[in-house]
Amino acid sequence: GGNVMSDKYGAFNRLMFNGSYAIHVPITKGMNISCGVGLGMSTLSFDRTKANPLGDDNLDQTYMSFLGQASNQNLFDLNIGLYLYTNAFFVGYSNAQVMQNKIYFGDPTQSKLNAHHYITAGYRIDVNDDLSVTPNFLVKYMNPAPVAVDVNCKVDYKELIFGGVSYRHKDAVVGLIGVMFKNFKLGYSYDYTLSTLKKHNSGGHEILLGYKIKI
């Protein structure tokens, strides 16, 4: 699999490309374990035209240092994950930004991309032959930020239509809808921010496209 992500925040932009591969190994009847790795490249950029320092520019040492550096950085990164699952149950752990690359736009701004840790688990409940409900959760942690928890519920109907809702603690609610046709999957989700950050963004849109290859 893979993904492409574009993120803009103030005068900074990030464009990321990531490819991933996983192997699946049966450990008991009906239970499998999967190990995956993702390799990617990201470009970080600083748009000088969107930086508006207060007062005299010449007295702002951080701003002057930014102007003296290249406005783009290319970074290589690694993501890893482990996933245990059956037809009804799953639990997994993943680590993103394993390389913890340093970011450098001038002396006062030396920092690094911290590792992100994720733990997820869920259980599918078959309501009848056509309808199933899968409650699940996702725990996220990045030092020194506090732990964040997503509580989710996904509904599948006849393996043709799926939908769901999510609540991200003190942050956002998410709606999801999609369709499945033979080996294709197409979905759309929208994040609506609940925190004070809603003053600075209009929500997030995501499109999912998948294809299952049978060997």
Would you give an account of this structure?
This protein is mainly beta and 215 residues long. The model has no long low-confidence stretch (mean pLDDT 87). Strands 1, 2, 3, 4, 5, 8, 9, 10, 11, 12, 13, 14 and 15 form a 13-stranded antiparallel beta sheet that branches. The longest helix has 7 residues. A hairpin with a 3-residue loop joins β4 and β5. It is built from one helix and 15 strands. It is globular, with a radius of gyration of 21 Å.
Summed up, what is this model?
By secondary structure, the chain is mainly beta. It has one helix at 61-67, and strands spanning 2-9, 12-28, 31-46, 72-85, 89-96, 102-103, 111-112, 116-123, 125-126, 131-141, 148-157, 161-168, 172-181, 184-193, 204-211.
